[in-house]
Amino acid sequence: MLDFTSALYLGLAHGGRSLAPWRELTTGVPAVLREAPETAAVARRLAGLQGCEAATLAPSTLHALCDLLGQLGAERRPIYVDAGTYAIGRIAADFAAARGAPVTMFPRHDPAALRRCLGWMPTRPVVIADGYTPGVGPTPVGAYLDSRQPPPPRRSARARRHASARSPRRPRRRLAAPPSTRLRERRACLLAGQGVRGSTRCTLRP
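The structure assignment produced for this chain is given below.
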């Protein structure tokens, strides 16, 4: 029976005897200041394994997402988060929101909801979602990519002039005088010796 309380069930063993000897245990410099010499080679192999043009290594998923979304947050880029996203992705989205990015969460695996949230915008949005959710299945990435609506068709200057020429101008509606003004008119007519339905040529008095 496998013991899932330990990572040793994966069958990983330390091949110390098969490794080539080395002179130094570390580079002597923190990883923040200098990349390891093997980083570029590992990134190229990782990109080829996934069928991508390039890849970048980071200390952890949290570091990579915070660095990326933090930069996008400084640019005020809109970010949309799938509700089923793992906690690390949501933490990075909160970090981007703290830097000024508008962050919106939509229901899990719902391209229609994402489409309603997106509408049409001139800037390219950022959508955060897990590639696969246990018990649910893969994320509809293709539908997410198609959720961005095309821009509205632009009318030519001739079409705009034609539309403005055909649209009739609405007559301006006279606003009714407020009750205070009507009351002063009534008083002015009474002071002029006329009835309530008298001539409208009476002048207003303070």
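Interim note for the steering committee: The radius of gyration is 34 Å. The domain at 60-145 is CATH 3.40.640.10 (Aspartate Aminotransferase; domain 2).
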